[in-house]
Design brief:
Layout (H helix, E strand, L loop, with lengths): L8 E7 L6 H9 L6 E7 L6 H6 L8 E5 L6 H10 L5 E4 L4 E3 L3 H6 L6 E5 L2 E5 L2 E5 L6 E4 H11 L9 E4 H13 L4 H6 L3 H12 L2 E4 L5 E4 L13 H14 L5 H8 L2 H10 L2
Parallel strand pairs: 1-2, 1-4, 2-3, 6-11, 7-12
Antiparallel strand pairs: 4-10, 5-12, 6-10, 7-8, 9-11
Helix pairs in contact: 3-6, 6-8, 8-9, 9-11
Length: about 280
């Protein structure tokens, strides 16, 4: 995609009780070198001064749009509401305790074509004094979606979080809507875990290609109630894998579904995920 033809990108910041940390996310969003952005902040009825802090940015930053839920609707519903409030064709979810490099949107948007379903980047995880760099590849590249899906499904690996990727609104909106409308996904709504993986899987299934940009970063501050996801898969990741495989077993991944479901590793993980 050429920067001469600039679609609107919505940076969606879902927030709840982050009166201190949200400033870093906001500063990163408005510092983007990509010129055609809006910043959509969806406050989940915070009980601290988060709403007032964000409102203080509005006068000097007209690209920021602030919304507030009348009641706390849970994390995933708040993500969904933020995306619904977005006007852009492309959406970057930026969690309120995280931030991105100044050139993040510019560099990721350059990789989008009609065949590319999502673009993701390395992530830097910061926890107290420890800093971990999750970098899957050394260089920027276009990746075959089928190979990417097989790698994720067979290796039980995921690119950390939806916070290190940018999607089309038309793709991510129905995924979150489906999860919210389906009773069996109640655990996703409560904790927000597993949604990241499910989003990657379902978007990659839809397109021939995905893209990886190696030289711009998403930064995550990991703490006790953070929505940063490490490589270790818990029961919610297993549920996300299982949902995706059930959904696709009669289509593209029938043989892979059979292979995974009959593997010793999968049975072992499923056993403990049901405890």
């Amino acid at each position: 995609m050429s920067l001469n033809n600039l679609p609107l990108v919505s940076i969606v910041i879902p927030v709840y009780n982050r009166e201190i940390l949200v400033k870093k996310a906001l500063d990163a969003a408005i510092a983007q070198t990509y010129p055609n952005i809006e910043v959509v902040v969806n406050d989940n009825n915070s009980t601290d001064n988060t709403y007032e802090v964000v409102r203080g940015y509005l006068k000097d930053n007209p690209q920021i749009k602030l919304f507030r839920n009348e009641q706390n609707v849970g994390p995933v519903n708040n993500w969904l509401q933020g995306i619904k409030n977005a006007s852009g064709d492309y959406v970057k979810i930026l969690f309120s305790d995280d931030w991105i490099s100044d050139d993040y949107i510019e560099k990721t948007m350059l990789q989008f074509t009609s065949q590319v379903g999502l673009v993701f980047t390395p992530a830097i995880i910061r926890k107290k004094i420890n800093i971990t760099n999750y970098k899957l590849f050394k260089s920027t590249k276009i990746i075959n979606s089928a190979l990417f899906l097989k790698f994720m499904l067979l290796a039980y690996r995921t690119p950390v979080s939806p916070g290190c990727a940018i999607f089309r609104k038309v793709d991510i909106l129905p995924i979150l809507s489906t999860v919210i409308d389906t009773e069996r996904h109640a655990e996703y709504l409560r904790f927000g875990a597993g949604i990241d993986l499910l989003t990657y899987l379902m978007v990659a299934e839809k397109y021939d290609k995905i893209a990886y940009v190696s030289d711009t970063y998403a930064h995550f501050l990991e703490h006790d109630d953070s929505f940063t996801y490490a490589n270790a898969l818990d029961q919610y990741y297993i549920k996300a894998f299982d949902h995706f495989l059930e959904r696709t077993k009669k289509v593209k991944f029938k043989s892979l579904y059979s292979l995974i479901h009959h593997s010793r590793g999968y049975k072992f993980i499923r056993h403990f995920s049901n405890k």
